[in-house]
Amino acid sequence: MDIAAYLNALAGLFVIIDPIGAALIFHSLVPPGESRHRRIMAFKAITISVVLLIVFGNYGQPLLELLGINIQSLRIAGGLLLFYTAFNMVTEEIEYSTADKKKDISVFPMSIPLLAGPGSLTLSILLFSKSAEMSADIGVMAAILTVCLLTLILMLVSKYLKKIIGQTGDEILKRFLGVILAALAIQFVYDGIANIAG
């Protein structure tokens, strides 16, 4: 496994998926006291997200080529999209509301758009397209599994996480991660323009 590819993918995916923020949103969407429903929704959401990120990451580029879209164009568009996401993370107000009835939240909003949304899917394609060797691909897959496993654990303990972090802690973390994501987004745009020009 390529450790550099793993760490690069881990940093990018951690920032854009935001396991702590996702767990706090998950907590607000599941009615209190529904521990079995909570476990089912958490496992289902993570399974769907892992499959989407790995499959789309591996086969998204050939699909784009079939449509006549250059990977560098995707790099630039993905960078702009990630920057928009980062901008919203830094400037948007965070709203919390508590759910009062059971419903299936695994696909929407947990998997799409929170965990495997446009930003993380684009990042997944870019990471897999950047990796030239099998060891790098394994590193990216390991990073996806690591971040998703961490998110699953935090979802399952979100009741306690909410007490520890609270709204203020989540807001600080979200805005800080937004700044990191903005820098990553600019790097994608720069790489795309440099590769087209070169």
Automatic annotation (TrEMBL):
It is a multi-pass membrane protein. Pfam families: MarC. The chain crosses the membrane at residues 6-30, 42-60, 66-87, 107-128, 140-160, 172-190. It comes from the Bacteria. The keyword DNA repair does not apply. It is found in: Cell membrane. The keyword Iron does not apply. InterPro entries: Multi_antbiot-R_MarC. Keywords: Cell membrane, Membrane, Transmembrane, Transmembrane helix. One of its GO terms (cellular component) is plasma membrane. NCBIfam families: NAAT family transporter. Belongs to the UPF0056 (MarC) family. This is UPF0056 membrane protein. It comes from Fodinibius salinus.
